[in-house]
Structures are given as C-alpha cells and as structure tokens.
C-alpha cells in the first residue's frame, strides 16, 4: 500500500516513466507534467528502463556491514543450546555486548530460559491460567470498591478534552470521587452495586446488608465473601455484619487476580458504562447506572459463562423485575 501522501501510485509511476522512456519526453518536462521533482522522475524512469517493479522497496538495508559473521552467531547459539546460558553470561564469555547477543538469540528464535525444561533443555508449553468457578450461586461472593472520578458540570476532560470544556477547562475544579461498591456472585456473575459517597466501615457494612438482601430475594444463600485487605473490610463492624453464617476470605496482598471476577466487572463497567458515552454531569451518568446494571444482569452475554447472562444461572431472578 502506498503512503497516503504519495503523489504517485504504481500506475502513475508507470505512466511517468513511459513518457520519458517510450515517448521521449525530457525528465524535467515529465516531472512538471506530474508535479514531482526531476530526481523522482529520473528514479522511476531508470527502474522502468531496467524492468524493475515500480512498487515501493522494503526499507530493510540490502547489506549489514556491521552484522556479526555466521561463525560468531554459531558461537553464541552453541552455549545457549548446550549449557542453557543467558545473554549476559554468553556475552561475558565471548566478549560481545549483551544486547548483541540478545538480538542474535531473538533472530534465531531461541526460547527464553524460563520456558525450557531444566533436565532436557526442550521448550515446555506455557501452562494455561488457573481458573476456578464455584458450583452453585452464593458459594462465594466477591466484594470490592471502585473509585470513579466524578464528572464536573459541562463534561469531563476524558471525553471532551480540556479544549472542549467550558472556559477551556480553566476554573473547573474536580468534584472528587464516587465509590462504587460491588458484590458479584462467583458462579452466576450476578452483580449488585451501588454508588456511594465514601468507603468507611459504616458505609461498607450498610452496603453488605442491602447486597445480602438482594441475593436472598433472588433465592441465593450466601456462604462466603471475598474482599481485599482494606480497612473497612478488616473492621469489626463489617465482620459483625457478615454474621456467623457467612465466612470472610481475604485476597493475597498485591494480588488483585485473587478477586478477579469483580475486577473484571470493574473493567466492563468502565468500558461499557462509565466512559462509553459523553456525560455532561456526574448526576447524568449516575441516573443511567441502574438501567445498565439491569442490562448486565439480564441481557448482556458473558463469555466467562459460555455466552449466558447472569440471570440464566439464577432461575428465579427474572421474576424480581417483572
């Protein structure tokens, strides 16, 4: 494909060269006719005369005088293949820069040492990520808080940019954050969520009481809850709100993947609701949240559960909305 700003396509180059070679036009006259430089007209005329294609050549150099010889490349590959040495050790052994050794190994498609079996030296297939899913609804509920910047009146810079906002963005102060608290069922991905003002322990405890009532109305008996190590979830008040029948589990520190299902809900929420449209106030966006949450639970296919919706896995949920 030619560059979008190129004045000549391959067919235009052929016509230019044909005027010079076949019809006897001068290079300068043909260049003026096609509005290109004489050097450009001369270049395509020479290629046309020699029978070369008039398409763009590769930018790859025809020769690399500074490239290592094949003998040195074999000396680099030998200790990697035989002794499983890394680029640093090979470079030190041969007196060659580590970056050069790395480029040679990459060019020969040598696998990383972490991908090799230590006993045989052969590549080991990368294991598939470990995934789990509880067998019944309510067996585990993932609870999390998502901080979302409030939209100032007139629109936010993420959608409008600074220039698109009122007064060019000057004088518009931030409105702080909204705290979206979620409770997502592991088995069905059924989600209960609220937009709240803070993440204090009293707020988190009150949210869980309403979330548990939501799951109870859907016919789900909550057995365990997984949270991160935030102060509101470590509080005695939140523990007392869970009661004796609901176990609390904590994620590993600095490992949000442990709470992956609710983290994926956060990503879906950001892509399909929070930043999917241009909102001109935070209140306007908040008014659409209940409708989007209903769409998520009842109508949006979920790839993690085979294209079903969360309501398909909770048999009596649809009746709550009729």
Structure description:
Helices cover 41% and strands 10% of the residues. It has helices spanning 10-21, 27-34, 38-50, 70-83, 87-94, 98-107, 157-164, 201-217, 231-234, 236-242, 260-274, 282-287, 289-298, and strands spanning 141-149, 177-185, 191-196, 224-227, 247-250. The chain starts with 9 loop residues before the first helix and ends in a 24-residue tail after the last helix. It is built from 13 helices and 5 strands. By secondary structure, it is an alpha/beta fold. A 5-stranded mixed beta sheet has the order 3-2-1-4-5, with helices on both faces.
Topology:
Elements: H1 10-21, H2 27-34, H3 38-50, H4 70-83, H5 87-94, H6 98-107, E1 141-149, H7 157-164, E2 177-185, E3 191-196, H8 201-217, E4 224-227, H9 231-234, H10 236-242, E5 247-250, H11 260-274, H12 282-287, H13 289-298
Parallel strand pairs: 1-4, 4-5
Antiparallel strand pairs: 1-2, 2-3
Helix pairs in contact: 1-2, 1-3, 2-3, 4-5, 5-6, 8-10
Range of strand content: 5-15%
Strand order in space, largest sheet: 3-2-1-4-5
Average pLDDT figure: 87
Basic shape: extended
Largest sheet, in brief, is: 5 strands, mixed
> What are the secondary-structure elements, in order, as H or E?
HHHHHHEHEEHEHHEHHH
Question: Which key terms come to mind for this protein?
Answer:
322 residues, alpha/beta
Q: How is this structure best summarized?
A:
The chain has helices spanning 10-21, 27-34, 38-50, 70-83, 87-94, 98-107, 157-164, 201-217, 231-234, 236-242, 260-274, 282-287, 289-298, and strands at 141-149, 177-185, 191-196, 224-227, 247-250. By secondary structure, it is of the alpha/beta class.
């Amino acid at each position: 494909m030619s560059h979008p700003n190129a004045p000549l396509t391959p067919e235009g180059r052929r016509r230019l060269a044909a005027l010079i070679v076949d019809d006897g036009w001068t290079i300068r006259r043909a260049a003026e006719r096609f509005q290109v430089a004489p050097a450009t007209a001369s270049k395509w005329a020479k290629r046309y005369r020699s029978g070369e294609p008039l398409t763009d050549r590769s930018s790859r150099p025809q020769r690399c005088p500074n490239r290592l010889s094949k003998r040195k490349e074999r000396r680099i590959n030998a200790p990697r293949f035989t002794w499983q040495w890394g680029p640093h050790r090979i470079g030190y052994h041969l007196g060659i820069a580590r970056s050069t050794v790395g480029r040679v190994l990459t060019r020969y498609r040598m696998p990383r040492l972490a991908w090799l079996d230590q006993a045989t030296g052969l590549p080991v297939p990368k294991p598939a990520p470990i995934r789990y899913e509880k067998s019944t609804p309510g067996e585990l509920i993932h609870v999390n808080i998502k901080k979302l910047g409030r939209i100032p009146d007139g629109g936010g810079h993420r959608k409008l940019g600074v220039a698109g906002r009122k007064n060019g963005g000057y004088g518009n102060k931030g409105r702080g954050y909204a705290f979206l608290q979620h409770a997502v069922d592991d088995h069905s991905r059924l989600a209960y969520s609220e937009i709240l003002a803070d993440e204090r322990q009293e707020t988190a405890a009150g949210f869980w009481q309403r979330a548990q009532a939501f799951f109870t109305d859907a016919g789900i008996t909550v057995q365990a809850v997984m949270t991160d190590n935030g102060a509101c979830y470590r509080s005695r008040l939140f523990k007392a709100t869970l009661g004796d029948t609901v176990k609390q589990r904590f994620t590993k520190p600095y490992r949000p993947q442990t709470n992956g299902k609710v983290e994926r809900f956060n990503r879906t929420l950001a892509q399909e609701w929070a930043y999917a449209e241009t909102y001109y106030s935070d209140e306007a966006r908040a008014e659409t949240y209940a409708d989007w949450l209903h769409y998520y639970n009842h109508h949006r296919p979920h790839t993690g559960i085979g294209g079903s919706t969360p309501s398909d896995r909770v048999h009596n949920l649809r009746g709550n909305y009729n």
